[in-house]
């Protein structure tokens, strides 16, 4: 399981990339760089929290994840 810190860092990194993209799209659609940044900023704030929560919830789902013991048995150890 990954740490909370790793999940937070991944969330922030991804959201910075998405912030740039969303801000550019907002600017192109509205013609206003200020409005594009406002849209990107709001999107950043909402989605960084939801992404983090999504990642942490998926850490609890065991479907499709091999447990360490199962992997060792499969390798013949």
Give an overview in words.
- This protein is mainly α.
- The protein has one domain (4-74).
- 81% of the residues lie in helices and 0% in strands.
- It is built from 3 helices and no strands.
- Helix 1 (4-30) runs antiparallel to helix 2.
- Note the run of SSEs as H and E: HHH
In percent, how helical is the residue content?
A: over 70%
Would you identify the regions where 5 or more consecutive residues have pLDDT less than 50? Answer: none
Radius of gyration: 19 Å
Which short descriptors sum up this protein?
single chain; 77 residues; mainly alpha; 3 helices; 81% helix
Quick structural overview:
This protein has 77 residues and is an all-alpha fold. It has helices at residues 4-30, 33-60, 68-74. It has one domain (4-74).
């Amino acid at each position: 399981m990954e740490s909370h810190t790793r999940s937070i860092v991944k969330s922030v990194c991804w959201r910075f990339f998405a912030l740039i993209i969303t801000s550019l799209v907002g600017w192109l659609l509205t013609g206003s760089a200020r409005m594009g940044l406002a849209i990107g900023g709001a999107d950043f704030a909402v989605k960084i929290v939801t992404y983090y929560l999504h990642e942490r919830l998926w850490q609890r789902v065991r479907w499709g994840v091999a447990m360490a013991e199962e992997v060792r048995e499969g390798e013949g150890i």
